[in-house]
């Protein structure tokens, strides 16, 4: 069984996309982030055998259930740093019978579906798959076995995340492959890059068109 997950945070103004909020204001930044989440939910609704939105904070369960609609399970994240929360996600999925588990964040709304599909194929032959970002992190991590050790002793939200994770994979003699590079949208320059991309690809996709319209209003 293949399980696919998205980590997401409630779109409260001032609590999400804080770097974008410096340029756009907290309300516009939070509205755009909500569209990031809804776009990913729509685009990946047919991915894998099971799909989970792992959200925070837990008191926003109704908001995420409403956004998710059919085809998604919504579950609150555990407490702790990002590594602890990812460890819990993978442990839950494998405990429930998953053979391959892929997790993404919610900062890359145009992430190609084929990258995720490729990740599941790769996991038929390897322990770990990673999708690198151009800022030294990763947009995707997938496992074909539980490997909590790769999420420990990582300096999260720094340019060292990819390097440290690969080192941990090697330290514990796990096999891994990497996917093509992609990007997270954190800064205004990233948002403008996203806008340029949407101008070319969004014409037949209502969710992407809505995201483009929101970006145009904000800037």
Explain what this protein looks like in three dimensions.
It is built from 8 helices and 7 strands, in the order E-H-H-E-H-E-H-E-H-E-E-H-E-H-H. The protein has one domain: Spore Coat Polysaccharide Biosynthesis Protein SpsA, Chain A. Helix 1 crosses helix 2 and helix 2 runs antiparallel to helix 8 (206-218). The mean pLDDT is 96. A 7-stranded mixed beta sheet has the order 3-2-1-4-6-5-7, sandwiched between helices. It is an alpha/beta fold and 219 residues long.
CATH-level-2 architecture: Alpha-Beta Complex
Unreliable spans: none
Largest sheet: spatial strand order:
3-2-1-4-6-5-7
Structural class: alpha/beta
The CATH superfamily name is: Spore Coat Polysaccharide Biosynthesis Protein SpsA, Chain A
Rg result: 17 Å
How helix-rich are the residues, as a percent range?
A: 40-55%
Which of globular, elongated, flat, extended, rod-shaped describes the shape?
Answer: globular
Distance between the termini: 43 Å
Number of domains: 1
Major sheet summary line: 7 strands, mixed
CATH topology: Spore Coat Polysaccharide Biosynthesis Protein SpsA, Chain A
> What is the arithmetic mean of pLDDT?
96
- Element string (H = helix, E = strand): EHHEHEHEHEEHEHH
CATH class division:
Alpha Beta
Q: Beta-strand level of the residues, as a percent range?
A: 15-25%
> What's the total number of strands?
7
Please report the number of helical segments: 8
In terms of topology, how is this protein built?
Layout lengths: L1 E8 L8 H7 L1 H18 L6 E7 L4 H8 L4 E4 L5 H14 L4 E5 L8 H10 L5 E5 L5 E6 L17 H11 L4 E3 L9 H14 L4 H13 L1
Helix pairs in contact: 1-2, 2-8, 7-8
